[in-house]
Each structure stands twice: as structure tokens, then as C-alpha cells.
Amino acid sequence: LNQAETLLIETRGRVALITLNRPGALNALNRQAMQELAEATRHFDRDPNIGCIVITGSEKAFAAGADIKEMQHQSFMDVYLADWFSGWEELTRTRKPMIAAVSGYALGGGCELAMMCDIIYASETAKFGQPEIKLGVIPGMGGTQRLTLAIGKSKAMEMFLTGRVMDAAEAERSGLVAKVFPVDRLLEEALKTAETIAAMSMPATMMMKEAVNRSFEVCLAEGIRFERRAFHSIFATQDKAEGMSAFVEKRTPNFSNS
Ligand code: CAA
């Protein structure tokens, strides 16, 4: 496995622990992070000594979204031709169980990355949300599909359309999160569950994951392809440029609906 710049990677017995590590950007997910995460999960998926993967961030942020600074100057043609974000599909092809241990912000792509995992554990300080609407765009890493499946249409729609944040208690109540722990116990509990899973029959845990995912995957795959194209086309709007510039310049966006 190559050295990663955006991640810390270690193994603990049969558990692989991947820590998102771009502290200066609240672990915003840029292309490099996407590629390194995909490479790490592909590596551990093939390693017979690993039975479960834990993905975590820092105490302040699991990940504050896709990297807005990287997207700010991209046009529709840029993201369409590069099929921006399609690399995340590689991560979702991981056949071994993955646990997201979320503390602090899991916004936009951060929330979407957590939802690509099979189980989400949260700390009491976790904050989930899809604030893309505030940037004049929509989610592009599966959020419209996975959040809706996880918490139901009305609540999901309310979150997407207002961009509001959900705290850990509400996330647990809504079924987005399996369990909530105090901040200082989160990682330990995620690793403990990962160890339990890693001690099970590996083919059984893999088949379990495949079967559970099958329950919604056919329509999900279609939905995600659709979502990605819609996400690309929104890069043709003025409001995308304005929303992202306003974020970087730390001011309120002035949307022109064009
Ligand atoms: N992309 C790039 N940089 C980001 C970032 C992001 N998503 N989120 C935070 N950062 C950067 C900030 O620009 C800042 O950098 P500088 O120090 O160079 O100015 C640094 O991380 C620290 O952030 P803040 O100063 O903003 O920290 P805060 O504690 O005041 O606020 C926050 C935290 C509320 C999470 C705020 O950072 C924020 O709103 N972030 C953006 C959240 C967001 O809109 N996410 C969705 C992105 S779009 C997306 O994800 C598309 C998709 O579906 C895949």
C-alpha cells in the first residue's frame, strides 16, 4: 500500500483503521483523498488478514464535504468529462464491512462518505447535513439517494432543501446512525464492533453485506447515476460560482437564480 498524504492508515489485529487527515480543511474530500481512500479500501478488501474497516476523522470533523475550493472553478464540461465523483463508486464496491466513526462535522460529501459505510457510529458532537443547497448545488456522492433511503423522504427533503444540520440524537432517532457514544469512547467502541465483526466468518459477513445492499441497490445505482449527471449540469449555473466564491470569501451568497 502506497503512503497516503490525506489519510493515516493502520491495522489493529484484523481491523483496518483509516483516519481522514486534512486538518487544515476539516478533512474536505478532494480528488486525492478519494483516490487514496479507494486505494486503501481496495488493498484491505484483498487482504485475507483484515475482516473489517473503520473510517474516521478528527474530533472536530469527520469531513466537512467535498473540497469546495477544488470545485469552485470547474465548469459543467470539466466535471462531465472527468465524470467527477465517479471514483467514489470504487469505495462502495468494497465487499468487507465498513464502519464510519463520526465525530463533529459530517457535511455534504462527509455525510455521503459516512453513508457509503455499512454502519455509522457517532459521537455526541456529530453533526450531519447536506448543505449543498446553500452553495447553489445538489449532492453528488449519493446523498439524495442514500439519505432518503436512510431517514425517509419528508425528513430527507427538509434537510436537502434547507441545508440544515442534524445532531447526533436526531440522527440516531431517524435511523441514520446505529449508536451514539461520548466523544472519548467513539473510536474505541467502533473498533470493538469492528473486532467482533472481523472475528466472524469472513465469507458470511461479505455475503451478508452483499445481500443487505441488494435490497435497494438496483434502484440506488440508477439514482446515483442520475444524481451525478444533475450534479455535473449544475456547474453550468451562475449560482454555483457565486455560492462557492461566497464560501471561500467568507460572505453571504447573492443568488441570481441563473
Ligand atoms: N471544502 C474546502 N474547504 C473547506 C471545506 C470544504 N467543504 N469546509 C471547510 N473548509 C476549510 C475552510 O475554507 C477553512 O479554510 P481556511 O482556514 O483556509 O479559511 C478551514 O477549512 C476551516 O473551516 P472554517 O473556518 O469554515 O471552520 P468553522 O469551524 O468556522 O466552520 C463549517 C465549520 C461549518 C463546517 C464550515 O467550514 C462549512 O460550512 N464548511 C462547508 C460545508 C459544506 O458546504 N459542505 C458541502 C460541500 S459540497 C459537497 O460536499 C458536494 C457533494 O455532494 C459531494
UniProtKB/TrEMBL annotation:
Its EC number is 4.2.1.17. The keyword Lipid metabolism applies. One of its GO terms (molecular function) is 3-hydroxyacyl-CoA dehydratase activity. Could possibly oxidize fatty acids using specific components. This is enoyl-CoA hydratase. It comes from Terriglobus albidus. It comes from the Bacteria. It is an enzyme of class 4 (lyase).
